[in-house]
Amino acid sequence: MKSLYLFCLALGSFASAQTITFNGCHALFDNQNFVFNKTGVDAYNKGIYITTPVTGDQDCGGLGTCEFKIQWNNTLSRWEFLADEGSGTFASPNLIYYNSTGNNNFLQNPPSVTFGTWVENTAVTSGACGGNLTTSNSTMTGDLHASSLATSDVKTDDSKIQIFPNPVAEVIRISGINNGQSIQIYNMAGQLVKSENFDQKINVSELSAGVYLLKINTKNFQTHEFKFVKK
């Protein structure tokens, strides 16, 4: 089994934190923090997070530089924590953890250890991490989600941004944002029902009556999320 060093996740806001910090699985990764930087988003508007080697020469057995990545696997509908195979390319990475949380289609950022279950991939770790991640065996902080968007209200850290009216019959208006890039609207099953370039007016007249999630994406990778009711 390859010797690895572990990752640090952090629970953060949608619009401010762009890093994830993790400390855990000390049997493989020692007692140290790993910081993941958000490097962009994928084709599904999910964040991509990659570490910078802590020292550049730390011992990770066959993994070389100890680089790690957290990204969305759309085929399996889950978030994954990957360890580089040693070349820094992530061409054949090792799966260390995956999150089994339902409703992951809603999440642009990875879930925290208190939301769903980060499952240890014992085929790679041989169980050395002590099982699934919990608050008792790991610390996870930063750009994370802590609850299901399907069952709890979404919060934004920028009170100046507003959508109105809500409930809405035809057009939602957005105020308080000047660097918008795109919007997506999801139904409560996590299905994308509308996607277009950002505009302060969004026509939703074609949507069926119900509850929806509006995601506003900015040009600097920030995201603001709002629930609204279509009449």
UniProtKB/TrEMBL annotation:
<protein>
    <recommendedName>
        <fullName>Secretion system C-terminal sorting domain-containing protein</fullName>
    </recommendedName>
</protein>
<feature type="signal peptide">
    <location>
        <begin position="1"/>
        <end position="17"/>
    </location>
</feature>
<dbReference type="Pfam" id="PF18962">
    <property type="entry name" value="Por_Secre_tail"/>
</dbReference>
<keyword id="KW-0732">Signal</keyword>
<dbReference type="InterPro" id="IPR026444">
    <property type="entry name" value="Secre_tail"/>
</dbReference>
<feature type="domain" description="Secretion system C-terminal sorting">
    <location>
        <begin position="163"/>
        <end position="224"/>
    </location>
</feature>
